[in-house]
Amino acid sequence: MQHASFGPEGALIGWTGTAGDGDGGAARVYVHGLGATSAVYHAHIAAVPALAGRRSLFVDLPGHGISDRPADFGYTLEDHADALASALDAAGVRGAELIGHSMGGSVAIVLAVRRPELVSRLVLTEANLDPHPPSAAGSSKIAAYTEDAFVRGGGFEETLERVGPVWRATMRLADPTALHRSACALVRGTRPTMREMLLGLGVPRTYLIGGHTGKLAGHEELTAAGVAVRTVPGAGHNVMFDNAPGFAAAVVAQP
Asked: CA–CA separation, 179 vs 98, rounded Å?
C-alpha cells in the first residue's frame, strides 16, 4: 500500500497496485465510483491474463477506502482529480490508461483536462457526463439530504439500508461527509460539463455501457467526436461484476 499527500496538511490518498512484467505499455489506473473502492471493483479485471502484464494502480479517492477523509476538504470533482494527480505524481506515472467507473469516470475526465500529461487513454464505465442526473440515481438520492441530515440525522444509515449488498459493502467504509459532498458534486457537475470536456479531448476514449442500462444519451454526438461507445451485454451499472470477461475485453480493445 502506498500513499501521497493531497489537499489539507497531513491528508493522504492511498492506493495498491501491481508492478506488471515490464511489457512497456502504459500503466493502467483504476478509479472507483461513488461509495466504492478501486481494488474491490477492478482487481479481478486487472488479473485477467490479457491485462495482467501492465503496471496497475487501484487508487481510492479521498473519503473512500484506504484514503484519508479530511473534514475541511470540498470533495468536488476537481478536488478528487487533483488528489488523483498527486497519487500519480508520487507513483511516477505519466501517460496512463485511466479506467474509471461512474463517478471515477467523471474524475478521470477532469484529470485528463487539468493534467493531460498524466493520461494517454480513457476507458469510462457508465461515467456521469451531465449534471442533475435523474432523481432515481444514487448520487441524487444522497444529495437530496442536507449534509447535516445525511451525516448526523440518519441519512447515511437510511442509505445503507436502501442500497443493495454490493454497494453497501464498500459504501459503509466511506466517510459520510465525503460521500455526501461527493454526491452533491456529481449532481452539480462541472463547467464546462464532463460531457463537453470529453468531447473536446484528443486522447483515445472508450465509453462502456451495460446492456441492461438502455440507450446512452448523446450516443451519436459522442461517436461523431471519436468516442468509441461499446455496449457490454448482460450487464447493468456494475459492468465489471455483471460481465467481467466482456468488461476486460473492452478494456483491452483499442478505440
From this structure: 22
Q: What pLDDT sits at residue 91? A: 97
| pLDDT one-digit tens code per residue, 77-130 | 999 999 999 999 999 999 999 999 999 999 999 999 999 999 999 999 999 999
Query: What pLDDT is attached to residue 254?
Result: 76
Query: How does DSSP classify residue 255?
Result: -
Residues 126, 158: Cα–Cα separation, whole Å: 25
What is the rounded CA–CA span in Å between residue 12 and residue 31?
16
Per-domain residue ranges for the chain? 2-252
Residue 205 is predicted with a pLDDT of 98
As its CATH architecture, domain 2-252 has 3-Layer(aba) Sandwich (3.40)
Integer Rg of the chain from CA: 17
Report the SS3 class of residue 206. strand
**String of b and e for 77-95 (b: at least 16 CB within 10 Å)?**
bbbbbbbbbbbbebbebee
Please give the single-letter amino acid code of residue 178: A
Q: Using a cut of 0.85, tell me whether the model's pTM lies above it.
A: yes
